[in-house]
Write a structure and sequence with these properties.
By secondary structure, the protein is an alpha/beta fold. The protein is 45% helix and 14% strand. It has a three-stranded parallel beta sheet, with helices on both faces. Helix 3 crosses helix 4 (93-108). The longest helix is centred in the last third of the chain and has 16 residues, at 67-82.
Length: 111
């Protein structure tokens, strides 16, 4: 960690696990990022949220209340609370990609 960084301004890595992943499966990545001075958030979408993301996606009006959208919102709220200046999304498989798609949509909109 750069000594000039305050503890609450450390970069954050969101570890977006694969379908069926457990937090313990991401422990090695969590430890690696912590060693280099990055905080981590582990998030794993449920199988139901992945199926909904595959069939609906962020541009479908029926998906406005999807579980994946709520997971993305909670991540963005956590980032705001942490007051980090940088974040990285480390995605694993389709589950992580669907989560990124929702985060991207919430930040940048449809375009």
């Amino acid at each position: 960690m750069n000594p000039s960084q305050s503890a609450n301004n450390r970069p954050v890595v969101i570890l977006a696990g694969w379908l069926g992943c457990q937090p313990r499966n991401l422990r090695r990545f969590d430890e690696m990022y912590n060693r280099i001075g990055w905080d981590t958030m582990i998030r794993i979408g449920s199988p139901r949220s992945v199926v909904a993301a595959m069939t609906q996606g962020p541009l479908c009006s029926q998906s406005s209340q999807s579980e994946m959208k709520h997971l993305a919102i909670s991540i963005l709220q956590g980032l705001r609370t942490s007051q980090t200046s940088h974040f990285l999304l480390h995605v694993f498989s389709n589950n992580g990609c669907f989560l990124w798609e929702w985060i991207r949509y919430l930040i940048f909109g449809r375009d």
